[in-house]
Amino acid sequence: MVGMKPQDVMPSAAVKFFGAGTAACIADLITFPLDTAKVRLQIQGESQKGQAASVVKYRGVFGTITTMVRTEGPRSLYNGLVAGLQRQMSFASVRIGLYDSMKQFYTRGTESAGIVTRLMAGCTTGAMAVAFAQPTDVVKVRFQAQVRLAEGGKRYNSTIEAYKTIARDEGIRGLWKGCMPNITRNAIVNCTELVTYDMIKELILKYDLMTDNLPCHFTAAFSAGFCTTIVASPVDVVKTRFMNSGTGQYSSASSCALTMLRNEGPTSFYKGFMPSFLRLGSWNIVMFVSYEQIKRGMTRAQQYWESPF
Are 40 and 68 in contact (CB under 8 A)? Predict the structure, then answer.
């Protein structure tokens, strides 16, 4: 990331890798209920082909959260949290923690990185992260989407059981279900999120609008969250529907998108937009602010460890 002064010591790749995963876990802990509400709103309507269009269980972000708390209890808002934290520790570490290293790889070690180089770095780390962490994402979405049955049962009772059940019933490929739409989504998300944050932060510092501190990080992170939500929402909805679908429900991600367009219209691709924005905006703020502070703290600790006197 930009913003380091010449006298500052650049954080190592290991510090960025660990710092990104830790910061993403902190952000997930705080914003997870919004993510769960987003998933419920995104999948709403996919099983209503034969029902009246007026049958809508969830209305709006806070209406969804209220309904879930009333009908399923407060803990339902954190369904899939364990898989979510597993996902962030492996996923964010790669897509965010290796972003600067990938920029340097494409620029062959030079500090000047243009927009194309940043986009290439974002696409690369986003695709790498999905290929590595896809099973955790599948389990997280399944947990968030599941509604407690009338008799009190659940589709999955634990994270480990979910991994085993999916592998047994759908094969190992089931754990990588929706991998291609997820790679597409995360290439888009990573490019928009990281490149927007990187460039806005660079411009703020270049024109001395703010110093490299909390207000600067907050502004750049909020802007990145808004831009990312607008660009990535359609792919995100298709990804969620496809990953949550049963065996044979959709033949491919394209089939899922066409079914949505035919049955629910083009606005279905922006279902859950408000929780997506609230979640991505708040997630970006918490994650990037935490990430910058963790990087600084770990770098100082590393300096002190190497030269305590």
Answer: yes
- Residue 75 parent element (H or E): none
Distance CA 79, CA 145 (A): 8
Q: Are 192 and 232 in contact (CB under 8 A)?
A: yes
DSSP states of 156-176: -SSHHHHHHHHHHHH-HHHHT
How far apart are the C-alpha atoms of 188 and 198, rounded to whole Å? 15
User: Two tokens at 80?
Assistant: 């899939």
Counted residue by residue, the chain has a size of 309
Structural contact between residues 248 and 193, judged by C-beta atoms closer than 8 angstroms:
no
What pLDDT digit, counting tens, does each position of 159-190 carry? 899 999 999 999 999 999 888 878 887 888 88
CA–CA distance, 305 with 177 (Å, rounded to integer): 44
55's CB contacts (< 8 A; 6+ apart) are 48
pTM comes to 0.81
